[in-house]
Amino acid sequence: MAEEDSIERVERTELPAPMISRKEVSIWAILKNCIGKDLSKITMPVMLNEPLSFLQRLCEYMEYAHLLTQAAHQETPEDRMKYVAAFAVSALASNWERLGKPFNPLLGETYELQRDDYRIVCEQVSHHPPVSAFHAESNDFKFHGSINPKIKFWGKSVEVNPKGTVTIEFPKWNETYTWTNVNCCVHNIIVGKLWIEQYGKMVITNHATGHVANLTFKSAGSGAKHLHRVEGFVRDSSEKNIYFLYGKWTDFIKCCTAESYSQYIKQGTRKNEDGEAADSPNGTPKRMFSKLNSFKLSSFRSMSIQDNDSIPPLEQETNEIPKSDSAYSLDVPDSTLLWSCKPRPSNCEEYYHFTHFALQLNAMGKNMKPPLTLCPTDSRLRPDILYLEDGNLDGASKEKTRLEEKQRYTRKHRKSTNGDDWTPRWFKHVTSPYTKTEDWNYVGGYWDRKYDIANTIF
Ligand SMILES: CC(C)CCC[C@@H](C)[C@H]1CC[C@H]2[C@@H]3CC=C4C[C@@H](O)CC[C@]4(C)[C@H]3CC[C@]12C
């Protein structure tokens, strides 16, 4: 995969400037008139953004791409499925504590990432509704899909439904897997500490063999004992349980046989064991716990309260982040650890809680700058994002407005000249043969690097 990997990469450990305190902003003041609305249609102050485009956020799915390579190297469909499931969960780990809003990509914006073992290209293929398509490939797998996030504001919370299907293909096995990502909810918009929860069912289907992984992302709900927990079975086509997977999307995923799990349940160990061990593979999660419990989103918290703004009466509900209760942890004997989350950089609070992987996304390789290799529509060239990264809020805000106006103008002009015909450059609209839902397929050619894009979007 590494033909052009002479592209120089200097690993970043921080951004050019730390994030700016959001003390003067009240999210509630901005959003109080938007209850029930689709947040993608509302202009929000750039202060609530993080310096990444949503296309770059999608690339964060790839942080643990080695799990897909591992999956492709397994000999049985159930073993491949357990790694695919671990990948699907790992892809969501970067969302933990990430409470800034990524920039809406401009129509036709692209983003690429080349790593030693894979490469990925994304494009914003539709503006209303916003749809982002991505296509990743390696020697062992293809991973592609399109996401149309529905972001609704419900007063106390923001709810995200990442509509769209994602697909994995293993050419060697002639297998295709699909699933849909779970919903996510940002709590405490009005008052308290913001925190993120992902919940619901994720069903991963192997369309060639009929194997299914049925994962439940538990809602913290009433008690907090289920905070961030994920569990479920890998089944074969006769619906026989083969493996049991369990863990947390913020932490780790372990796997045991369905038999060991039912043995364990029969012994009644599930609810009263101590659970320390289960929460500490590699020692990482314990560290993350203590961090979570003491997690102070100082800048965010103050942005959600403003004295002279009328704050509606709250229902009786805690504004704290629920603490995970380790007494409910599972630790089934003979489990294997499929995935464990890398710890965040120690300075991450200053940098939008970015992972090490996210810190790299705006970095410009030495030979990348156009016309050398980089496509002129790449998110790395977006001036508003770069200004925010540099800590220049005014610049970011002005540029964001300018780009959005330019986009509106281009659209109007297009409408009057050719009836609003917009065709994405790298993807085509299809119906997925597996899910029968709308999707976008990569048409190829991006990596030939012959970019004939004349009028730039920035
Ligand atoms: C008012 C402020 C606090 C709102 C901030 C909203 C932020 C936290 C929202 C806006 C858009 C959201 C993203 C939209 C779509 C997806 C894809 C999904 O597969 C994982 C979650 C993820 C990546 C969401 C994470 C949370 C998110 C980034």
UniProtKB/TrEMBL annotation:
Start and end residues of each stretch annotated as Disordered: 267-287, 307-326, 398-418
Keyword Transport: yes
Extent of Basic and acidic residues compositional bias: 398-408
UniProt keywords, alphabetically: Lipid transport, Lipid-binding, Transport
Species per Swiss-Prot/TrEMBL record: Drosophila guanche
GO MF annotations in UniProt: sterol binding
Entry similarity comment: Belongs to the OSBP family.
Any single GO CC term annotated in Swiss-Prot or TrEMBL for this entry: cytosol
GO biological process: one example: lipid transport
Superkingdom of the source species: Eukaryota
InterPro entries: OSBP_sf, Oxysterol-bd, Oxysterol-bd_CS
Name under which the protein is recorded: Oxysterol-binding protein
